[in-house]
Amino acid sequence: MMSDLSCSVLVIGAGIAGWTAALRAIEHGVDVLVVDKSPGEFGGGNTLMTSGSLRAAGKNLKSAPQALYREVMKEGVAYPELARAWADHCPASVDRLRGWGVELADGPAGGLLLEPRTSISLSPVYKRDVGANILRKLKASFTKRGGRYAGNTEALRLLIREGCVSGVVAQSNRKSLDIQSKATVLTTGGFSANKVMVVKYIGRHAHECKLRGSPNDTGDGLRMAMEIGAKAVNLSYFYGHLLSLKALSDDRFWPYPRLDSLVNEGILVDRLGNRFVDEGRGDVAVANELAKSDDVKGACLIFDEEAWQGARSDAPFPYPKTPSANPWLMENDGCLYKRKTAKELARAIDVDGANLLRTLDSFNKASERRSFEGVLVPRKGKTRPLRSPLYGLKVVPGITFTMGGVLINGKAEVLSQEEQPIKGLYAAGDAIGGLMGGYHGGYTGGLCQAIVTGIIAGENTASFATGSVRAG
After folding, report:
1. Topology of domain 5-235+403-466, CATH
2. Could you report the per-residue pLDDT of 24-46, keeping only the tens digit for each?
3. Does residue 259 carry a pLDDT above 60?
4. Does residue 332 have a pLDDT over 90?
């Protein structure tokens, strides 16, 4: 345990946002301490589960800042000052990662891969140990520069002295301790594993969704910041996917198969056999919509043989061409049913047969005339009629991480309800809000948000701790 309970910059949370913040701060010559409530060597956050896909709102991080800014502002929920700072810092963040020892490589469609030589595990497809390799390298670079780390140390509440956050009250080995700091960074992740918060902010039945992320993301930073008057935004949105309903009871169905392409090709119906969501908005948006409903476990994804066969080699970026959801779901009894007619399928998936027939007829006619005008639930994007035989897959939303959190400005300073900086308090990664979320999903990239806002936080905490101007 620490012998010195003071530091210039305190970083709470040892994920990729925490380490990038700590490294950028220590590069400016300040004393940095990182703490994490997990006893593990690399904390216990979502970084340990990453596959290493690094993209900025669907673009390469080295894209022109103006293009990145425009992309992240499309949803209409991002805060302009934060979005501008994020976009401006994206290109340089790639070189900073390389400088800290992280290996990067070009990936498909202009993306980047972190630690691309990490081994592959199957059943179903997922990359293994990417996150641990990233954190191992960042932590080594940090300690080489003289940084300190303390695991098994849980932050409980923020300390305030003379109107400025001055550290935290923490607990380690059941003992309370004060950690004094000139600047504090919250990199504690989101609140996806806090069922009370999930119900409060996402949907009253959202606790019945599948947790795809870390069980340690319990909203600690959000809670502590809000206790001292911080503003929180975009709390109703999360990043996640539709999963087979079997995922709730069988962890073989986590973290894959994901059903992105099948959602794009099919329709989602409720227990009555009615469409209730625009599937063309994308898998993330559809998962959010279902999570906000009164029956998060009652939906079924309907698709046809063409969609099923098309998914056979649809390994999503950045995975190699290895078996995807098809045929893995069928072989492992993944709540998937195939029938020759819609009437037979309705019986198999236990939905109203007459309604399902009407739903399919309405959808097919609208697809043929290429217009959903007059259809109760619209549909964006290209569609085609669904033909027998048909498949029905019972699904549930899987929540990977929450997109909302404490609002920060372009310097990563946590803002009050009046949107004024709370002196001495900064935040980064999944603990923040203000970049992601929106009707169409609004995903800018979890790794990208964490790395870039971590760098911004590290630069500005160092400046604040030393009383100097903002570092470039």
Report:
1. FAD/NAD(P)-binding domain (3.50.50)
2. 999 999 999 999 999 988 889 99
3. yes
4. no
CA separation for the pair 393, 327 (Å, rounded): 13
Q: What is the mean pLDDT of the chain?
A: 91
Contact indicator for 436, 446 with CB cutoff of 8 Å: no
Phi and psi at residue 183, to the nearest 5° = -145, 145
- Stated as kind and residue range, the H or E segment containing 244 is strand 238-244
Cβ–Cβ under 8 Å, residues 443 and 415? no
10 Å CB burial of residue 331 (0-12, 13-18, 19+) is exposed
| Interatomic CA distance for residues 185 and 5, integer angstroms | 16
* In the chain, ranges of CATH 3.50.50.60 domains: 5-235+403-466
Range(s) within the chain of domains with CATH label 3.90.700.10: 238-399
Nearest of 273, 305, 389, 394 to residue 341 by alpha carbon: 389
Q: Does domain 238-399 have CATH number 3.90.700.10?
A: yes
Answering whether pTM is above 0.85, one says yes
**Least confidently predicted of 10-24, 238-252, 393-407:** 238-252
φ/ψ region of 207 (left if φ > 0, alpha if ψ in -120 to 50, else beta) reads alpha
